[in-house]
Amino acid sequence: IYLWDVHPNTFSNWKGGRWGYFIAEWKDNRYGHFGSVHFVKSRIRPSLVTHELDHVRTEWMLSAGFTIIGQNEERMTEFLDKLVDGFYREYNKINS
């Protein structure tokens, strides 16, 4: 995850989203590297963080051939919760 201290228009110029975006990178997914998430540091919002980290979760599921069904839906929701909680735990360390 990268936090950029740039104007939101910069991301648009980079062909990313306005405040954040995910780039799928399948370089070495043996070690859990599915891509990179980029945020405009001044525009961090819960909905944006959840949206972009859901892209990470989706890439993980695609790489594993995983399909959400009734029996595993709660587990995948908890996985997203862990991603978001982990982000905010680290984010709060650098912003306190």
Query: How large is the share of residues in beta strands?
Result: 15-25%
SSE class? alpha+beta
Query: Separation of termini?
Result: 18 Å
**What is the strand arrangement across the widest sheet?**
1-3-2
Largest sheet: 3 strands, mixed
Output the number of helix runs: 3
Uncertain residue ranges: none
What is the chain-wise order of helices and strands?
EHEEHH
Tell me the total number of β-strands: 3
Shape: globular
What is the percent of helical residues?
40-55%
Radius of gyration using CA atoms only: 14 Å
Task: From the structure above, extract its key features.
three-stranded mixed beta sheet; alpha+beta; 3 strands; single chain; 3 helices; 96 residues
What does this structure look like?
- The chain is an alpha+beta fold and 96 residues long.
- Helices cover 48% and strands 21% of the residues.
- The chain is built from 3 helices and 3 strands; from the N terminus they run βαββαα.
- The chain has helices spanning 8-13, 46-63, 73-94, and strands at residues 2-4, 20-28, 33-40.
- Strands 1-3-2 form a 3-stranded mixed sheet, with helices on one face.
- Strand 2 (20-28) and strand 3 (33-40) form a beta hairpin.
- The longest helix is centred in the last third of the chain and has 22 residues, at 73-94.
- It is globular and about 40 Å long.
- The two termini are 18 Å apart.
- 14% of the residues are buried.
Produce the secondary structure layout.
Blueprint: E1 2-4, H1 8-13, E2 20-28, E3 33-40, H2 46-63, H3 73-94
Parallel strand pairs: 1-3
Antiparallel strand pairs: 2-3
